[in-house]
Design brief:
single chain, 343 residues, alpha/beta, Translation Initiation Factor IF3, UDP-n-acetylglucosamine1-carboxyvinyl-transferase, Chain, Dihydrodipicolinate Reductase, domain 2, 4 domains, 8 helices, 31% helix, globular
Length: 343
Amino acid sequence: MEPVRIDGAFGEGGGQVIRSAVTLSAVTGKPIEIENIRKNRKVPGLRPQHMLGIKILAKICQARVEGLHVNSTSLKFTPSEGMDMELEEDVGTAGSIPLILQVLIPSVALLRKKLKISITGGTDVPWSPTADYTKIVLGKAFSTIGIDFALDIKKRGYYPKGGGLAEAEILPCRNIRPVSFLARTTRSAKIFGSYCNMPRDVVEQEVSNAIKALEEYGFKTEHTIREETALNSGCSILIFSHDDASVTGSDIIYQKNMSGMGRLVAGKFLESNLGVDLSLSDMLAVPLSLIPETSVFRVNQITKHLETGLFVASKMTDCKYGIGKLDNGFEVRIAGSSDSGMQ
């Protein structure tokens, strides 16, 4: 079978192309060839966290891989049969565990396999969803589709030292379902804060600021703050809500200054008042492209990550998608192809 050729410089031109392509390659059995990987980034080519996700997935689907090395700008991935596995892996840096799981969760579940995995690396790091976002927000959205996983955060891993530990169990998907996420109607939200080697009262103040910001817009809130272990100091805050027609979340990590974190994360959450938030929208493109029925979701903005996910999905599955402008955002419709080749 001739590989599907994908331009890695398309759209956001980074890891989203790789994650979407290898996931759909594994699930459909179609080989891929990606060129121009991260071509326009300051450091082009594959980074360690991209490599580990591909390496693990290659083990699970017994894939033949060419070009799997640091700074590689081209990659060939030829999958075979999937297998149940139990694995222990180490990113070796503060590379994002959640981004690795973005590859593994839909791949393994849609291959109808089972994976138990322990990964050491970064749980809450820049330019990535936090581990709590992955566990809670992505977990809820994926369960609606029929993709179920459990995630246990044993130890936090913040930038720059990493060293976090997450244990995940991914279950076979028995019945994949279309979704309709149109608008948030609930006025209830949950706030999760975690921290290490920082004054608790500072974290509590930022969570309190988030609560006040939400209450100003009529939200009732519940909150949990956990002190956890990590190699270096760090903090993350997540706000989450869901109802029959929405799954939305907003997260933030401490980098240089805690001041303003609470108000900022609350502001991001309040802006995401449609069916899904911006981060979740691009994570849905891959699984929805494999469902023959039409799924629909509404989002406040069409991000480069979402554009990239839709582009790769259409090339790999022949799904059809459309984007319509609304007064307060956009509506995305995805109709997967029954000939997608899902194994």
